[in-house]
Amino acid sequence: MSARQTCAAVGVCLLVVSLLSAGQMVESARRMELGSRRDLALSVATKFDRVSHFLSLNRPRDWANDALDRDVGFEPVVVGPTPTIDPDATASTSTTTMPTPQSTTEPTLLLEVTTPLTPPEREPTSPGRGDPTRPGTTATVSTPPPNQVGRRTPSAEAPLVMYVGGDSMARELGESLLALVGASGVVDTDLEYRVSTGLSRPDFFDWPARLQEEVTDRPMEVAVVLFGANDGQNLEALGTVLPFGTPEWIAEYHRRVAAAMDVLYAPGRDVVWVGMPICRSASYSEKLRIMNQVYADEAAKRPWVRFVDTYTMFSDTDGAYADYLPGAGHELTLMRQGDGIHWSRQGGDRVAQAVFDLVDATWNLPG
Questions:
Q1: Mean pLDDT of 345-359
Q2: pTM here?
Q3: 129-158 burial string, b = 16+ CB within 10 Å, else e?
Q4: Is the pLDDT score of 151 beyond 70?
Q5: Which structural domains are found in the chain, ordered by start?
Q6: What are the pLDDT digits (tens) for 188-244?
Q7: Cα(190)–Cα(174) distance, rounded to whole angstroms?
Q8: Are 257 and 198 in contact (CB under 8 A)?
Q9: Which H helix or E strand runs over 223?
Q10: Contact at 8 Å (CB) between 309 and 140?
Q11: Is the dihedral of CA 351, 354, 360, 366 positive or negative?
């Protein structure tokens, strides 16, 4: 075979592979940060996908997805009632490798975190109509609310209905929380996490719409949500791209966070919004500080939302990132996975305990 024939054969093989995986190419392009590179990649991938569908080359992948009951375009999703979790397993030092969030370019940050919060009381806004406020204040942990008059006592026959949802960070938190509430025997919990999602890209996955479906479909009494790992990127609003960290970006992110919180509102329902922890990358952590402040600001306006600040929870005595932190017995314990972002099992246990304490303060869970 001549060199020309070899090159032609390789080209044909690459073309066939591209057509067979065109759907995945489209999803990968959709996950890219907004900008000209994403537009070009999405345009090329879409053309391949159209040809693939025309030639029915997408069928094998679609059949495989149907056979595996796989949600096309998203990585691991866990949805369902409380699984059986071995409490001893949650104490293991082994960790699971989690995907790293979509990387983004590092913009110049325009805000500095300085002033402490004074939480005001606030009535809920209508979904989608947040009240952007001045960012740049120090996030604090919401104190547990007192036991509220009229709250029922959960039982094995009528368990408390809890939902845990968010991006990939919700996995370790959710599994640890499932172990805690499972021990009480009076909590029915669903865990749902979707990798590479957040509030920044509703064109890829619309979390407020998903949460609206969830609260419509089931009688949820406690919602625990976590976003931010993939939101440190530019936003698109009304056809305009808003660079991360600008006042316009902050205002739009306030609006989106407010909309998500308001979707979850219902009389008697508690919402626990978990903030993002400090991470190994200083520039990435600075993005998370800005987003955490938005969460704290919006939660402070809503009596039904409790904010959990994990940024300081996972900082060392100098306020810096550390893989190992003192555990319950003051021994150094691995709190993070190898990517310097996701929690280890012990890290998940720590934040889950903080969430459990908030819920228990209101509902008096046994155990």
A1: 96
A2: 0.67
A3: ebebbebbbbbbbbeeeeeeeeeeebeeee
A4: yes
A5: 3-67 (no CATH), 89-363 (3.40.50.1110)
A6: 999 999 999 999 999 999 999 999 999 998 889 999 999 999 999 999 999 999 999
A7: 9
A8: no
A9: strand 222-226
A10: yes
A11: positive
